[in-house]
Amino acid sequence: MLAGVYIAYKKDKTLYYRSSITYKNKHISLGSFSEEITAHNAYLEATNILSDNTINIEQYNRKKLLSFDKWVSLINFRDNGIYFKNPIYLYPKYFLYYMTPDDVFTFDVDDLFYYSNHKIMRRGGHLFVADYGMQVNILNRYGIKNFAKPGKDYIFVNGDETDFRYRNIHIINHYNGVTKSEKNGRPVYTAKIHINGDYIIGRYESESDAAIAYNKAIDTLEEKGVNIRYTKNYIDGLNQAMYDERYDKIKISKKIREY
Predict the structure, then answer these.
(1) pLDDT for the residue numbered 173
(2) Pick from 172, 194, 228: which residue ends a domain?
(3) Which of the residues 37, 39, 173, 177 has the least number of beta carbons within 10 Å of its own beta carbon?
(4) Count of domains in the chain?
């Protein structure tokens, strides 16, 4: 049997060949192949990566036998001494997560454990991970709600929408139905809800009051038989008694009360 190759069988007893390599006392699976020589060549490809510091991530192309994820993992292991199954390349204070050689995301090292155990996927322009059997939009991890629109509800400070380091993400509007503006140099928070068109619920001095007003508008509309699935806001830092007290005091527009 050629170096790095092992025989295996599928459930239907079909023969195939598995390729693997051991580096720094770690056994690494390289993939499965239909031919022995192909599995061996994959092993040689991995050997070259681990022994040649001039081989880099950007050199990957479709002619390579190894998957792109494996290519990145081996280069990171070679350079940094840590093996990740996901396509991560580690730097001292941040890491890069590679979707393709030209499609790369930057994260703080604080997120390393999470993304080394959760594979990022893309569907319909959205980035998500599978977490406890659910598809979780990675924007939610940074406090960006599903309703949020870039440039309006949040911005990337340096203009790079692939840079998810915490200092680069600035949340403008934290709650559903709430937008921030300024009047006479002071912040004003407008609560708005969509029924048949947009209805202004009110304008408030605090963001949390506007968020509670939005919740109150939902309750009012539901009592009037409006059958729309709105998402209520959860207000951080308020227990139920505090929430109820503010809820009772906050006023909402006559148009909502009399809808």
Answers:
(1) 86
(2) 172
(3) 37
(4) 3
Mean pLDDT of 23-45: 96
Place of tokens 């059958």: 227
| Per-residue pLDDT band at 183 (split at 50, 70, 90) | confident
Range of the domain at 153: 84-172
Question: Cα–Cα distance between 46 and 109 in angstroms, integer?
Answer: 26
Helix (H), strand (E) at residue 115: helix 112-117
Name every residue whose Cβ is closer than 8 Å to that of residue 191 and which is 6 or more positions away in sequence: 177, 178, 200, 201, 202, 203, 204, 210, 211, 213, 214, 217, 252
| 116-132 confidence digits (pLDDT tens) | 999 999 988 889 999 88
Six token digits for residue 134: 């659910």
pTM: 0.81
Same domain, 182 and 250: yes
In angstroms, the first-to-last Cα distance of the chain is 78
Q: Can you read off the two tokens belonging to residue 27?
A: 């056994």
| Tokens (6 digits) for 253 | 């527009």
**Who contacts 235 (Cβ-Cβ below 8 Å, separation ≥6)?**
208, 211, 212, 243
Query: How far apart are the C-alpha atoms of 216 and 199, rounded to whole Å?
Result: 13
Which of 33-47, 126-140, 231-245 is the most confident on average? 33-47
Neighbouring CB atoms inside 10 A of 253's CB total 18
Looking at 172, 196, 223, the residue that finishes a domain is 172
